[in-house]
Amino acid sequence: MNTTKTAFAALFMGACALELQATGCELITAVDRSQIPVEDAGCADGQVACGPTAQCPAPGTACLTVDCNGCCSTKPAAAGTACTDHGGKLCDGSGKCVACGQPSDCAAPATACITNTCVSSACGTTNAASGTACSDNVGKVCDGSGKCAACLAATDCPAPTTACKITACDPNAHTCGTTNVAKGSACSDSNGVVCDGLGACVAAHCADGLKDSDETDLDCGGSCGATCKDEAPQQACKVAGDCINGVCSGSPLRCQPPTCGDGVKNGKETDIDCGGPDCGLAKTCAPGKGCAVASDCASAAACSGNNYTAPSTCNGSNICVAASPVDCTANSKVCNVIGCVACNSASDCPATGNECVAKACNANACGTSFLGSSHVMSTGQTAGDCQSLVCNGAGGTTSIDDSADVPPASTTACATAPHCAGSPLTPAYTPAATGTSCVVDGKFPKQVCGNTSILAIAGTCVECNNDSDCLSLNDAGSLTCITSTGTCQ
Q1: d(C-alpha 274, C-alpha 294), whole Å
Q2: Which of 152, 235, 405, 412 is 20 to 30 Å from 355 by CA-CA measure?
Q3: Torsion over CA of 412, 417, 418 and 422, rounded to 10 degrees?
Q4: Nearest alpha-carbon partner for 450 in 401, 414, 488
Q5: Sign of CA dihedral 159, 161, 167, 169
Q6: What is the pLDDT of residues 445-477, one digit of tens each?
Q7: Which helix (H) or strand (E) is 388 found in, with range?
Q8: Which residues pair with 428 in a beta bridge?
């Protein structure tokens, strides 16, 4: 504290005491430090003064609260106050944030065979005592090492259903099981009287290891029922009822393995000699017969005219049921073994109205395809023009050269050997030799074929190629041929 101000305060209090005697001045005996200016608070070293002009700094944990009595200080929060610092979750009442104050503050373990502990404000676990009841991990009793096991002793296991077995608990795996009682031990379950040593209570003579009483083979057949085996070595029988699979035949009589033609429902068949994986598709069952899945049933999908019949199904009662026919025509469709479809071939699809757009059937759906130049149009052709009208691959037409489409014979004797020539090909003829008679053309006075060296008249019937070809004198009294046009003047 400032020494000068301290002396001043003492002097002030002394003056007041004198004034009290003289004038009745009130003596201050208690001081509200929060009202003293910060610089006069008189806080110890390291403390912060507090009051109207200053605030105390927040503590670093929720487990301490601020206290101001002129100088800042802290005090512990109540035990159990929530906190999150230092990895804790609640206050211990002495200003620290800790994990726990008691075991119930810790996260519950996943099994009743482990219990929580809280030591020195830290969570931990300990194994429950051996024999503690539990229900996790399909168990019922704790094994003392933190696991819920099926058993610790045979008495923890369920009782067997026959007197020919006794319960057992594996001491290492702590799992329940059974052991068979000795052969010959008395029993009364399953209509038997004696244990067979394999855990079953049977009639005495059917499990004594001897062929006795009315047995047809060792411990089988007769009053032992259909118990004789058909596997090698096949056991002897007298009737089908002695055999597991109900077939007794051969010489000598022996139990036979099941087949799909022995007249008995046996093996994996779903009905007599049909169905199941052994009989397969070759021996499926007719409607009304037993089945396990649809493939056990006989009828496959079929078409009769345009009527579609779906495969038989196996109903909820495991009986094969035939499907009813469906008329595909009603939906403008055709029959296929997969059902009623739009088409089986392109002929089932509607016409396109365009010779260059062909109807098509793809995956039983109608569609179209464009025809290319290999398709020659059936209409629109011009004979003898050395061209062929074909499809262009885009739904339209185009003209292509056709050397076989030669022009017809010429109407003049001056044009011979009709053929196609040029690019693109056009009709062409071979001109007759210059001066060849073309009187047969009947176009008098034209009478000779034009000069082959003059393109304009080659291959045509003209009046002349020279003056001597002219048949009459002109006004000048002479024979004159205009050779460029093949006319007389």
Answers
A1: 13
A2: 405
A3: -120
A4: 414
A5: negative
A6: 999 999 999 999 999 999 999 999 998 888 888
A7: strand 387-391
A8: 419
Amino acid of residue 483: T
* CA dist., res. 48 & res. 58, Å (int): 12
Burial class (CB in 10 A: 0-12, 13-18, 19+), 89: middle
Give the separation between CA 224 and CA 215, rounded to whole angstroms.
7
Which residue's entry shows tokens 């009442």? 93
Cis peptide before 408 (omega within 30 of 0): no
> H-helix or E-strand containing 214?
none
Domain ranges of the chain: 3-30, 276-341, 429-488
The span from the CA of 270 to the CA of 268, in Å, is: 7
Report the helix count and the strand count for the chain, using DSSP H and E. Answer: 2, 31
Q: Which residue has the tokens 């004979």?
A: 383
C-alpha neighbours within 13 Å on the C-beta side of residue 271: 20
Task: Count the neighbouring beta carbons within 10 Å of the beta carbon of residue 114.
Answer: 18
Average pLDDT per 10 consecutive residues for the chain, totaling 489 residues: 38 38 44 48 73 69 82 84 86 87 85 89 88 88 90 91 92 91 84 82 82 91 93 94 95 95 93 92 90 89 90 93 91 89 94 95 95 95 96 96 96 96 96 96 95 96 95 88 95
Closest by alpha carbon to 244, among 234, 253, 255, 260?
Answer: 255
Q: Does residue 445 have a cis bond before it (omega within 30 degrees)?
A: yes
pTM (predicted TM-score): 0.39
Q: Which phi and psi (to 5°) does residue 238 adopt?
A: -115, -40
